[in-house]
Request: fold
Amino acid sequence: MNSKIALITGGSRGLGKSMALHLASHGVDVILTYRSQDAEALAVVREITAQGRLAVALPLDVGTSAGFPAFAQAVRAALQTHWQRDSLDFLVNNAGIGIHAAFADTSEVQFDQLMNIHLKGTFFLTQTLLPLIADGGRIVNLSSGLARFALPGYAAYAAMKGAIEVLTRYMAKELGPRGIAVNVVAPGAIETDFGGGAVRDNAQVNAFIAGQTALGRAGLPDDIGGVVAALLTEDCRWINGQRIEVSGGMML
Reply:
C-alpha cells in the first residue's frame, strides 16, 4: 500500500518542523516548504529520512501568490520523481509570521504583509494545489488562540486568523463532495522563534502565559505537532469543518 504524503508549508522550523516529524513517526511521507533557510529544511529532511520515511524540501514564499503555479509544478514533479504518484493526501497551511503592533500604530504595509501570507496565501495556494490533492484527502489550516481572546498588539494578525477560521468552514463545505475534510488548528502561545521568540526567550512573557493557562505553562512545538498528526489519522476522519484550539486551556 502506498504511504500517505503530506505537504506542510513552513515545515523547516518551529511548529511546522514538529508537524513533519510527528507525521513521519505516523508513517507519513512529507513535502515541506521553506522560504530561505534551505539548510534548516534539509536538516529536517535528514531527520525524517532517519525515521525511514521519504521527505523532500521545496522553496516557497507563501506571501507571493504569483509564484504558486510554478510551485505546483515543482510539487507535481517531486511526486512523480520520488513517489511515482500524481497526488498528495494532506495539505497543512502552516507557514506564517508574527507582527506585534498596536491597532492604532499598524501600518498598511504591515497589514498587507500579514494578509498576503496568512489569508491570501492560504486561500490561493490551496486553490492552486486542489488538482494535486487526492479525493478523500485532508486539509489543516492554522489559526491562533488570538482569534478567540484578545491581547493588545495583535489586531491585524488575529483578524487574518479569524478569516482563516471562516474560510475553513467554507472549504469544508465546498470540498466535501470530493471527500476532503478541512479543519483548523488554533495554537495558544508556543515557545518558538515566532514573533521574535518572546514566549520562549522572555521570562516575563513566559510567566504571564503560564499564569493565564489552565495547565500552568506555555505551549511547546510538540504540543501542536502531535495534534496535527493525530488529526490526519484515519481515527479522525469524521472531524470536519471544526476549530480545534490547542492552548492548554489559555484564557478560559
Q: What stands out?
A: The chain has one domain: 5-189+221-246.
